[in-house]
Specification:
By secondary structure, the protein is an alpha/beta fold. It has a single domain, classed as Rossmann fold (3-Layer(aba) Sandwich). The chain has helices at residues 13-24, 31-41, 44-54, 61-74, 87-96, 109-117, 157-171, 175-180, 193-205, and strands at residues 3-6, 27-30, 78-81, 101-106, 119-121, 128-130, 184-188. The longest helix is centred in the C-terminal third of the chain and has 15 residues, at 157-171. The termini are close together.
């Protein structure tokens, strides 16, 4: 089974993908995390990606497609989180994969900005926290390894608004394709985490 999970920044894609991964044993492919892994490796490709992300832009298809196929070689059943973001990427996925479901986690722009601007990330393991509701046990430190949490440059209001504009322009239109082929399911992302996952489960059980 392959699932596309999408929605605006801060809607909880990563959290829900993790819950789906745990229950259904699919691999959670977060394109953002995969890109950051490459950045952390210090490779030439990683340096190129770092420059792009820090400006609030998206990595080009030539990069994301390479990373996607490398992951797919190791994991045949995927939850696509953060990919595809635009039509050219969707065309690439449709060509190489059978997609069973596309789940949109809907969220208002105001709530998206509020959530993302309060996110903190562990630079070592990539775990996400939030200073409002997903707090670490020790303030400012990762529960897993004690690393000091950071506020990423692309999680600040100015860059968030820029990314939301890109999402509205490039990603939202993909819904029409998912709807046309009958695989679209929309979930209210303003609900608590458990309620969102419950709605997703109900949909997946019907597949």
């Amino acid at each position: 089974m392959n699932i596309i999970l999408f929605g605006p920044q801060g809607c909880g894609k990563g959290t829900q993908a993790g819950l789906i991964e745990q229950k259904y044993r699919l691999y959670h492919l977060s394109m953002g995390d995969e890109l950051r892994k490459e950045v952390k490796s210090g490779s030439a490709l990683g340096q190129e990606i770092k420059s792009i992300i820090n400006k609030g832009n998206l990595a080009p298809d030539s990069i994301t497609n390479r990373i996607l196929m490398n992951v797919a070689k190791r994991h045949p059943n995927l939850i696509f989180d953060g990919y595809p973001r635009r039509k050219t990427q969707l065309d690439y996925i449709v060509k190489h994969f059978k997609i069973d479901a596309a789940i949109e986690i809907d969220l208002t722009e105001k709530e998206s900005i509020r959530r993302i601007s309060t996110r903190r990330v562990c630079p070592k393991c990539g775990r996400n926290y939030n200073i409002i509701w997903i707090k670490p046990k020790v303030p400012g430190k990762c529960d897993a390894d004690g690393t000091i949490l950071i506020h990423r440059d692309d999680d600040k209001p100015k860059e968030i608004k820029k990314r939301l504009g890109i999402y509205t322009k490039d990603t939202e239109p993909l819904k029409e394709y998912y709807k046309k082929i009958g695989i679209l399911h929309v979930v209210d992302g303003n609900q608590p985490i458990k309620a969102v996952f419950s709605d997703i489960e109900k949909f997946l059980k019907r597949l």
